[in-house]
Each structure stands twice: as structure tokens, then as C-alpha cells.
What we know:
Blueprint: E1 2-8, E2 17-20, E3 34-35, E4 38-39, E5 41-45, H1 52-59, H2 61-66, E6 89-97, E7 100-110, E8 113-121, E9 124-130, E10 138-139, H3 158-165, H4 172-185, E11 187-191, E12 198-199, H5 208-214, H6 218-227, E13 234-239, E14 242-249, E15 252-255, H7 256-259, H8 262-278, E16 285-289, H9 297-310, E17 313-318, E18 334-337, E19 342-344, H10 359-364
Parallel strand pairs: 5-17, 5-18, 11-16, 16-17
Antiparallel strand pairs: 1-2, 1-6, 3-4, 6-7, 7-8, 8-9, 9-10, 11-12, 13-14, 14-15, 18-19
Amino acid sequence: MLKKLTVSNFRSFERDFVFDLSDVNGYEFNKECIKNGLVNNALVYGHNGVGKSNLGLAIFDLVGHLTDNNVYVELYRPYLNALNGGSLAHFEFEFVFGSDHVKYEYKKDDVRITLFERFEINGKELARIDRYASTKATINFIGAETLNNELTNLSLSLLKYIKSNSQLEDNVENQVFYKFYEFVNSMLFFRSLQQNVYLGLETGRKGVQDDIISKGNVKDLEKFLKKAGVECDLTIAREIDKDVIAFNFRGKTIPFFQIASSGTQSLAMFYYWLQRIREQSKVQFVFIDEFDAFYHHELSALIVEELKKTGIQFILTSHNTSIITNDLLRPDCYFLMTKDRIRSLSRSTPKELREAHNIEKMYKAGSFDVG
């Protein structure tokens, strides 16, 4: 699980920006929102332009150099912060896997170029390279002793090199390393908008409706839409030279994506990814940017509940204050973000927040310090 991110000189983050998911309170309600002492379900709020999308891009930056999974490089342009003046963006991640703690620090000047890396498990340094000082790497993994430690290819991550070119001994540290890599490989970022933009998880994909049809899930999509309040009868129709999802109006079919509302199309896109999220071996972490851009507030709450059922760690960004409620999550799972910092509702007020509090009303009344 992701525990903490510290990032600086990356896009909108000029100085150290810290997102700490380990700063939890001992609330006795919605305990399923916390797992292994970390926030498992998080909603991030903030005004337009504070960097909520960039927070997701910062988390998923490591996917670009550690895996072969999908990365839209154009989303990372420009890469460095315009005000910082430094030549490198600095990332520091902390993860928890059971009782083991992983720390991965790196510096880059581009999404594909990693110039410094340091990897630790439980405080023990297992890999390090500083290409500004030398192209020689320090590799302390048991089973990687014969690897050439000279890395001149700037686009090749040290960790990816070790993972791809060694048969590590089956010991506790190496098992944690593989768990870390499995987690990164199963991270998913997407935007719940009309364009299916995603990062991570897969190296290739089908279109939304092609995928739903091929999996035989058209009727399951219909069931999901009905649960969301969209009454419909879905079927498969032939359109020119391919099968498409269609609305069935007493035998007359009209292609789904021709007449479905923006919200309904967004729901279909969410369902496309929900299929993968439900397969826990495929997805362990998901970040959905503007997850409810086209949703009614009741539907937004339904989406959060559906994600909670999967048990995976997720982070959502939103402007919808109606779902700031203790019925859904808890105060240490709602985060308020400004350009300089992010912290939970429970850390944004000196008041003791209780389950009976109307935290949306408190938020609108200015009870939480977001300055």
C-alpha cells in the first residue's frame, strides 16, 4: 500500500509537497476505510488549479520508468516546475507491505530519464545510483551479485534493470521487492471524463464497448446502470462492420454512444475499469481524477460505495461537497488541498470531529483551515 509521497520541482509542486496516508485517527466508525494503519479510501478536494490532477501524475510518475505499462508522455509536459529553478524533480515514496516498509527515492529531469535512485527495505539500502557522480550503481540484492553495475543508459531505471536481469534469491527482502513491483504494475490512473485517458496497468487496451462486449458483460453493464438510476434495455447491435452496445426500444436499436448522456457515458467508462478493479490481482491501487464530473451527488456516493466493496486502495478527486459525510468515509479520509499542502479534515481543525457531525456543513461554513 502507498503510505506517503513527497515531491518537489514537479509541475505545480515547487517545494516539498507531502501527502501522508499514515496520519490517521482512531475513529470507531467506517473502520474499513483504514487498512494496515493507512488510509485505504481517500477523497481529495481543492479549488481549480491547486494541482489535484498533478498529484495523481506525481504518484504515477514511477510507472513510467519502472514498468512497460501505459504512460501518456504528453501528460507530463512540461515536467519541471517553472518557479523552482532546479534541474531535477525529486520524488520520495514510502510503501507498506504487511510489516515491511519500502522507501524509494529518485530524481528526474524528464518522465523517462532517471538520474538518481535509492531503494530501501526496512531501512536497509539495496540499490543506489547517482548518475551525476558516476554511472556505477550499488546493488546489494542477494542473487544480483554478478550483474554489471555500469549503467550508461539514462532511460533505464536501476530497479527495472535489476528486476529484468537477475534471478534473485528467495528471501524476505527479495519477496518484498517483488511485492513492491507487483503493486506498481497494478496501479491504475484514469479520468472519469468522455476521453478514456489512463496510466498504468496495461500496455494495450480495447475500446470501452469492444471490451465490454468481448467479456460478455453487456447485461451486467445494464444492471450496473439500473443500479445507478439509468433505466435501460441494452443489447448488441450490428453497426456497419462491427458489433456495438445499443439501447433497445421495443425492437428498435440505437447505438449507446450516439444518444447516451455525458453522465451515462462516464458511467460506462467507469464500468469498463470496474471490471478490472474487481479482479483484485489486476488492480491494487486506483486514482480517479474528477471521478464524478458528470454525476448527481447520489450517484457519486454509489460509486464510492462500489469502490469500497473492492477493498483496494483508492484516491479520488472531486469538487462535490455533498459527499463529504461521515456516512460514507471519515474525517481522516477527506483531504483538503491547496497549492502548498494537503491534509485531512481531522488535521484541519482543533475541534474533535465525531460521527454525528455534519462535516459538509462545517466545511461550507469555513470551519476547516485550508490556508
